[in-house]
Amino acid sequence: MTEAFVLPAMSAPVKRSVTIGGHRTSVSLEEPFWRELKLIARRRGETTATLIAQIDHRRPADVGLATALRLYVLSELRQMLAAPDPAD
Ribbon-helix-helix domain: which residues (predicted)? Predict the structure, then answer.
């Protein structure tokens, strides 16, 4: 018998406009990813737009921007979970 699990609240992707290298583009991400990107940028002392531009410039050409942003957020959250607790 498998354990029951609870899915998180889900929403459709939200499209937002961003400027990358002086060009406007739209990116569709689920709201939790937008929130995490904003928090990550704040921790880094950057704007969300700056962080998105950095990710855009480093992503492989065959990977879409929305995918790159989601994978970046996932990677950052995994690093945070793996980091030792500074209180220890």
Answer: 13-76
